[in-house]
Each structure stands twice: as structure tokens, then as C-alpha cells.
């Protein structure tokens, strides 16, 4: 049976382990050629090795798929450019960018250091921006030259980015930025044949299995459905990367186990218009009325 991504070329960042690895393997099973990108660092950002990405490449080629490894730093301007060039040089085209790479520095807001903040924002938010920016530049050039383009950007946000998460200010801010970046990409790039969507996954990874160890633990029964297995996230991402998803753009999907939902983002809510400038002393009752009419916000993860 032909896979739904037959012949497509896909970049997956952070693809050596966990969710990213599952994406890469599933894209390959569905017929795609995959650039497996990972700098191979430890969870704290130390070290670095090509072996981790190459191992996934070897898994793909062992079953007849096509893949190449990349250790480019996605948050480095030239590294992001090089990553896109790797896909074009190796396979002659690029159809999908899956931005998945990330790190975590769990800190309560008041304890977060500048270096920790900068590192998280850099890898998550700048890394998402830089790779997709060079891919979009390539796709725009093709479209302007009259070439058909049916391209996809799939970004990785998080429930922390949608609701907030206690102890993860930098991570939550970066993931919220990614969700909004996705909306802008969808609005700007549709004219060139590019869609942009994001996922907010819940699964067992190096970043979640310690902080949320109880929730992320595999089931005691080895035959039971493992809802937190990272492989559960890949089917939606692969579908979003396929030609079948051309009509879907600017959306954020939450995915956990066998459950898929569409996140309902910021909307214009209740309003009161005086038709003139407010006096500050007038606004207490106005705000109270607005809040009474507005839906109750979803609770921040970890809030008591």
C-alpha cells in the first residue's frame, strides 16, 4: 500500500529521540524521504553527537526507506539555512518542515536566570522561526517561478503554551509564541501554496518523564494501550504533512494518546463601549461586568 506521504521530502528537527524520532519513522513508513535533524545534546544542553540522528537514519534505511542525518543547530541562522540546503541537496526538493526541537529549564518565574530564559526562547522560538523562514523562502521562489507548491509547516507548541504551566515560564512563553507564529505563517504563506499548523502534544519524552513522572509512566499491563507513548503523536503530524491536509491551515491541535482536539484560541470577548474616554474610577464595575460575561479561563497547569 502506498503511504500518504509517498515521494515527499520532510525535515524533522529534534528527531533523534522521543516524539521527533516517532515523527521521522512514521513519515518514512508513509513513503517520505526524511532529513533527521538533531544536535545530539543531553537534556541539559551539554554534549553533542551525530550518532543519535544517524541511529534513526539507520533504522529508516534498514527497512528500505531514505533518510539523511543533520546536526545543524536550528536556532543558528546559518545552521537553519544549511538544514534546508541539506534536504534540497540530498533529495532535490522539500515539502514539509516539522519543527520539534526543544529544551527545557524548569524554574519558578522568580528563580529563572537570564541564561536559562535565553536558551529556551532561542531553541524553541528562534529555532522554529529560522528553519521555516529558509524553507518558506525556497517555496516562495518556486511559486513565483510558476512551479506548483504543496508545502507544509508543522510546529510544536504545548499545553503549557496554551494554558501556562507553573514552573515553566520560559517554556510556556516560547510555546505560546510558537502558536501565534503559526497563525502568522498561515496567513502570509497561503498565497505560495504553504499551510502552517501546530500541535500541542502530551507524551512521554525526556522533558516530561521526570517532571510528570506519574502521569507519563507506562501502564503496568504490557498489553494495555500506552496513552503516553510518543508514537501516538506522529499520525496527526504525518497527516498534516501530507497532501490530504491542504485545506487545513492556521490551526493548533492538541493530541494525547488516541485523542485529537482543536484548541480554541484567543477570541474577541464581551465588550462595553462608552463612546468616549473612560475615567479610571468608572472602570471597576465595567471590568466586573465583562468578567461576569466572559468564559472562565482554563486553569494554568500546576496551579492549586
Walk me through what this model shows.
The chain has helices spanning 18-29, 51-62, 77-91, 114-144, 159-163, 169-189, 213-216, 234-240, 283-293, and strands at residues 9-13, 33-37, 67-70, 96-98, 151-156, 194-202, 252-256, 259-262. With 304 residues, it is an alpha/beta fold. The chain has a single domain, classed as Rossmann fold, CATH 3.40.50. Strands 3-2-1-4-5-6-7-8 form an eight-stranded mixed β-sheet, sandwiched between helices. Helix 1 (18-29) crosses helix 8, helix 3 packs across helix 4 and helix 4 packs parallel to helix 6 (169-189). The longest helix is centred in the middle third of the chain and has 31 residues, at 114-144. The protein is globular and about 70 Å long. The N and C termini lie far apart (50 Å).
Largest sheet: 8 strands, mixed
CATH class category: Alpha Beta
Query: What is the domain tally?
Result: 1
Mean pLDDT over all positions: 93
CATH superfamily, please?
NAD(P)-binding Rossmann-like Domain
Order of helices and strands: EHEHEHEHEHHEHHEEH
Q: How many beta strands in the DSSP annotation?
A: 8
What shape does the CA trace take?
A: globular
The helical percent reads 25-40%
- Order of strands, widest sheet: 3-2-1-4-5-6-7-8
Distance between termini? 50 Å
